[in-house]
Amino acid sequence: MKPNKAVSADKYTEDYYLESCGGAEFFDRYGPEIPKPTLAYALKKAELKPGMEVLDIGCGRGEILFQAGKIGAGAVGTDYAEAALRLAKTVSGAPVLLCDAKALPFKDGIFDLIFFIGVIDHLHDWELEICFAEMKRLLKPGGRVLVHTCTNRHYYKTLTYRLRKALAAVAASLGAPLRAPRPPRSSEDEQLHVNEHSYGHLRSFFQNIGWDAEIEALPNHKDLVERLYGPKLPPDFPMKAASLWKRVLNGLLFKTPLKRVLAREYFIAAAPF
Known about the structure:
By secondary structure, the protein is an alpha/beta fold. It has a domain at 9-152 and 193-219 and 261-272: Rossmann fold (3-Layer(aba) Sandwich), CATH 3.40.50.150. Helix content is 42%, strand content 18%. It is built from 13 helices and seven strands. A seven-stranded mixed sheet has the order 3-2-1-4-5-7-6, sandwiched between helices. Helix 1 (14-20) crosses helix 2. The chain is globular, with a radius of gyration of 19 Å. The chain starts with 13 loop residues before the first helix and ends with a strand.
C-alpha cells in the first residue's frame, strides 16, 4: 500500500505564517520578543545555554532562532516552505536552510538539542519515522529532541466534541442558551493537520522507533500564563489567564490519568535509546 502523500510546501504561504499559524497574534504585537505560549514553554524546557548547538526543524517565523541567539546558543533553522525561511531569516538573523525534514543536510552528531515544535501534526507516521532517524543521526551523545503537538485528538475531535454537541442539543430543546461547538476539523485542519495524535498513539510511535519519550499532557495555556510570562503582563497581551477555580480544578484533574484525555496538547522530551 502506498503511503499517504506528504503535504505540499505550497500550502505554507507568508499569509499563513502571519495570519493563520498559531501565535500570529503574539507575533503581530511583539515580533519574536514575546513568543506564543507553546514556544515559551519549549524554551523553558530547553534550558538553553551559551555555546549550545541547536537545530530548529520547521522554524516557521523564526522566534526560537531569535531567542536562542539572544542566549548565545548557535542556532540554525530549516523549513521546506520558502515563505517561512524569508521570515525567519529577517526575524532572527540566524542561518536557515530550505530542505525537507526527512533529508537534513548536516554532519552526524553536531547538535545538543533539536526543536520539533508544531511540526509532528503535519507529517504522516511514515514521514516521522524518517525524520526521527535523521534526528538520531544528528544528535550528540546525550542530546534530545523537544516535540510539541498542538492537538489531542481525543479532546478536540472525538470524546468532548460529541459530548458538548449532545449537551448543546439538550439545552436547545429546553430553551437554554448553550452555544453548540464548532465542527472538530476546520478546512485548514483537513489540509495541513494530517496526523493528529492521542497519548496512546504518541507512546506507541516512540516505542516503535526505539526512543525514550517523556510525554507531558498540558491543559489550556491560560492555566500557565503566570508561569510562562510572570504576573505582570503587557496591557495588550492577547491571552487572559484562567480564573483561579479553573486552575485549581485542572490542577487536580491533571494529577490523574484523566489528563491523557483532557489535555489540550502534548509536549514531549525525547531521546534515542
